[in-house]
Structures are given as C-alpha cells and as structure tokens.
UniProtKB/TrEMBL annotation:
Domain named Glycoside hydrolase family: residues: 64-320
Listed InterPro entries: 6-hairpin_glycosidase_sf, 6hp_glycosidase-like_sf, Glyco_hydro_9
Name this protein carries in UniProt: cellulase
Alphabetic keyword roster: Carbohydrate metabolism, Cellulose degradation, Glycosidase, Hydrolase, Membrane, Polysaccharide degradation, Transmembrane, Transmembrane helix
Family, per entry: Belongs to the glycosyl hydrolase 9 (cellulase E) family.
Top-level taxon: Eukaryota
EC number: 3.2.1.4
Amino acid sequence: MVEARKGISCCKHVVLPVLVVLIVAVIIFLVKDKAHPSPVPSIPSSTPSAAPAPMVPTLENGTYGAALATSIQFLQIQKAGKLVGNTIAWRGDSALNDGKGASLDLSKGLYDAGDHMKFGFPMAFTGTILSWTILEYKQLLTGYGKLNLALDNLRWITDYLVNAHSADNVLCIQVGDPKVDHSCWDRPESMTEERPLLFINKTSPGSDVAGETAAALAAASLVFKSSNATYSSSLLKHAKQLFDFADKYRGIYSYTFPDLANYYNSTDYHDELLWAAAWLYHATGNMTYLQYTTDNGKKFKGYGDPTYFSWDDKRAGTQV
Ligand SMILES: *[C@@H]1O[C@H](CO)[C@@H](O)[C@H](O)[C@H]1NC(C)=O
Ligand SMILES: *[C@@H]1O[C@H](CO)[C@@H](O)[C@H](O)[C@H]1NC(C)=O
Ligand SMILES: *[C@@H]1O[C@H](CO)[C@@H](O)[C@H](O)[C@H]1NC(C)=O
Ligand SMILES: *[C@@H]1O[C@H](CO)[C@@H](O)[C@H](O)[C@H]1NC(C)=O
Ligand SMILES: *[C@@H]1O[C@H](CO)[C@@H](O)[C@H](O)[C@H]1NC(C)=O
C-alpha cells in the first residue's frame, strides 16, 4: 500500500506544467488548423474540392476545442482560496489561512496536481505560459468563449505570486510540506495538516524560481496592461525587483533546499535569468534587458543547444 501510494505521488505532481504545455500545443494545432483548413494537398481532379473546414469554433468531444476547454477547466479546478464566481460544482473554499503565520495572504494560487501543495517554481511557469498563450491567441480564446476563464486563472496565480514576494530579496516558494501532504488523501476543503511556508532570500537563494516568477509577472503585466494599468504596473514592479534578486544572489533552489530535488528538481538557473530578462524587455522596451540576454546568451552554457522546452528548461523559449 505504502509503495503504491508513493508511486502515485511521484507522478501526480507533474500534472500542472504538463497540462500547461498541452494548452499551448492545442492552441498551436488550432491555429494551424485555421491557417490550413484542408490538410489534404489538392489533387487535380474532376471532383469538386473538399468542403472547407467549419469556421465556427466547436467544443464538441474529440476536437482540439474540447481539449482546450478541458485544460482551462483543469486550472479552474486547481484554484485554492476563497472562490469567487466558482464554475466547478464540487469545489469550495480552501487554504484560507495559508500565509497567516507570516502575516501574508497566500490563500490563492493553484494546487499543483492531485495534491494540495503550492509549488512556486511550476506555478510561476504556468503563469508565464498562460500569459504567453493569452497574448498570442486572444482572438481564438475569445472565439471559444474561454478568454475570461483564462484571465481569471492567470490572475489567481499572479495575485498569489505578488503576495509571495513579501519583501525585496524575499520570496515564498512553497506552501505545504510535500512529505506530509503526499500522505494525506483528503479534500483541500477539509484538510487539517500544517501548511508551512518556505522562503528564499539573499543567503538561501533560488535564481531559477525567482527568475521564473519575474518572467511570469512581466508577461502577465502585458496581458493586463490595457484592462488594468494599475495592476499591470504593480506586476512589473515586482518582476523587476525579482529579476534583480535572482541575478544578484545566484543559486539553484533545489541545491539550497536539497529535499526539494525529489519534486521539481531544477538543473540550472541561467535559462530562467535569460527568460526573465527577455520578458522584461518585452514588457518595458528597456534595452538594458535586451543587452543582458544578448551578452549572457552567449556566455551561459548550452544556450544554443536546447532539446526541449519545459518547466525546468526554458532555453528554447528564450530563443523565440
Ligand atoms: C463530452 O463527453 C462527456 C463524457 O461523456 C460528457 O459529460 C460531456 O457532456 C460531453 N461534452 C460535449 C460538449 O459533448
Ligand atoms: C533566509 O531563508 C532561510 C531559509 O528559508 C531561513 O532559514 C533564514 O532565516 C532566512 N534569512 C533571513 C535573514 O531571513
Ligand atoms: C485593478 O486591479 C486592482 C488591484 O488588484 C483592483 O483593486 C481593481 O479593482 C482593478 N480594477 C479593475 C478595473 O479591474
Ligand atoms: C537533481 O538535479 C541534479 C543536477 O542535474 C542532479 O545531480 C541530481 O541527481 C538530481 N536529483 C534528483 C533527486 O533527481
Ligand atoms: C532600464 O533598466 C535598468 C535596469 O533595471 C535601469 O537601471 C534603467 O534605469 C532603466 N532605463 C530606463 C530608461 O528606464
């Protein structure tokens, strides 16, 4: 029994980032579909050409639209805190006291997967990718009637990340104890286990998680720029400080906290520094950030040689 449980908890915590990459993949397919309505090359013949693909988005089962809708719904399901306008019948308020011990409101954010952990590193990556998705494919999300849910999901993450950045050079990177959490098979609405907080700072650094959080907030500042300028500039302010913190006090968070290598093990932080600087340049137009990426892109090991794009390795993303 114990072994079986362990097996499940090992796999279940990677669901969130995998799903986020799925959202992007689905949208890319949708756009490709739209760009090339007929995947079959036209063969000269006497028969009339195939009917064009339907232009009205469909959410029917078995379509990419359904996969997109389900992915967005997954993020809704993962929401912690006091739910507002909840769209999921079987979810309720939970984790309302997260952060209270440190006088912080860390009640929002998304649970990682089937567990009740709030892991900052993959949650921030989710925020960055969701922002990128909304920036690139706003029209498509609107067409599917999913834009508002996507924005709500994003804001649920960024509200949490802003509060987690409780002071200059301090960031809460985790709520909950993964060892305890993974042996509690309860609902988040009724969990009673302790919810300890874990912070990085100048002496216990994590350039990867601070860099990714900076990237998420810079990217989200672009998303909210036209709808809420105050919120957008607050996100950007946090992003800039977090980038400075990440760059100045360097370290891999899963070296700082070796126990965390069992969950989201970070193999390097240089990719997150480049990724954060790229998003900051995008959000500010400030050449200093562009200069940082061009100078360090050459210097940081393996920049030109990415093999995949993931919550751990953003090199491919920095080259887009
Ligand atoms: C898709 O299938 C599920 C499971 O059978 C069903 O609950 C849902 O209503 C279907 N959705 C649509 C849009 O057909
Ligand atoms: C920095 O973080 C570490 C680990 O979270 C903690 O033990 C230490 O007290 C913190 N340092 C300061 C000055 O707050
Ligand atoms: C903008 O964001 C602020 C800060 O979260 C919030 O208080 C305010 O209601 C928002 N304004 C609009 C128009 O959404
Ligand atoms: C974490 O990553 C480091 C660097 O790649 C590696 O040396 C270490 O074995 C990994 N730890 C675990 C538990 O996977
Ligand atoms: C650009 O960013 C750098 C680094 O944060 C800052 O020192 C500089 O003042 C900024 N330049 C402008 C024009 O805002």
